[in-house]
TrEMBL record:
This is CAAX prenyl protease 2/Lysostaphin resistance protein A-like domain-containing protein. Signal peptide: none annotated. Keywords: Membrane, Transmembrane, Transmembrane helix. The keyword Repeat does not apply. One of its GO terms (molecular function) is endopeptidase activity. Residues 128-223 form the CAAX prenyl protease 2/Lysostaphin resistance protein A-like domain. GO terms for biological process: CAAX-box protein maturation. Pfam families: Rce1-like (PF02517). The chain crosses the membrane at residues 7-27, 33-55, 76-98, 125-142, 163-180, 186-205, 210-230.
Length: 236
């Protein structure tokens, strides 16, 4: 059985990455055009469907990329501890480094970024539904599956499995993640890119466990969205 030439393999991987990203961004743009809430989550899950189709050719499963539930109390404790470490790291980097630097250079998120959340203010049922479907399932689970699970690993296939290859993959995937949040302006792009760096590093440090970064993503988004809801949109 002959192995696939490296150049052909790289072209195949690159086409998979580009196809998934085009589908994700394209579907999101269409959903945004029609004013559908959770457009980003819809785009993400369409990207996941396409990624899953690509994964079937080499008979890969999401388990390979770390989508497995911990077994027993000890494993759950380890995963939760890693998630909390990621959350603390994000808040420290944001509060002590990024926010001061961005403020110094006058970089702020556009004032209309939070407008998309206005519809559930004062409506607890809408808030909970949005939190569960869009924030937890769409963003926390979906983005971690696609960004840290599929994209980061596919990039490492392209750049190589060496330490340098993983570092380059980590940086490139963070830039992609930041650009997906371009609606938040330059400040939002920089912020989310650094969050992707932290989540990606935690994913690799934890030996490719997705549960810690999924939980961390869920915790951070839940805190920020709950603060927005409880303050009537003052905190965003």
């Amino acid at each position: 059985m002959t192995q696939e030439p490296r150049s052909a393999f790289n072209v195949k991987i690159l086409l998979e990455i580009i196809t998934v990203l085009i589908v994700m961004v394209g579907i999101k743009s269409i959903a945004d055009y029609f004013g559908i809430n959770g457009a980003g989550s819809i785009g993400i899950w369409c990207g996941i469907i396409v990624a899953t189709i690509f994964m079937k050719r080499p008979k890969e499963k999401w388990r390979k990329y770390g989508l497995t539930l911990p077994k027993g109390k000890r494993e759950w404790a380890i995963n939760i501890g890693l998630a909390l470490l990621a959350v603390i790291s994000v808040f420290l980097v944001m509060g002590l480094i990024l926010d001061p630097i961005l403020s110094h250079y006058g970089l702020e998120k556009p004032t209309d970024v939070a407008d998309r959340f206005q519809f559930f203010l004062g409506k607890p049922v809408y808030f909970i539904l949005y939190l569960v479907t869009v924030v937890w399932i769409g963003a926390a689970l979906g983005e971690e599956l696609l960004m840290r699970g599929f994209l980061l690993n596919r990039l490492s296939d392209f750049f190589g499995k060496s330490k340098i290859g993983w570092v380059v993959s980590l940086i490139v995937h963070s830039v992609f993640f930041g650009m997906l949040h371009s609606y938040q302006g330059l400040a939002g792009i920089i912020t989310t890119a650094f969050i992707a760096l932290i989540f990606g590093a935690m994913y690799l440090i934890s030996k490719k466990r997705l549960i810690p970064v999924i939980l961390a993503h869920m915790i951070i988004n839940t805190i920020s969205l709950t603060a927005f809801y409880l303050t009537g949109g003052v905190v965003n």
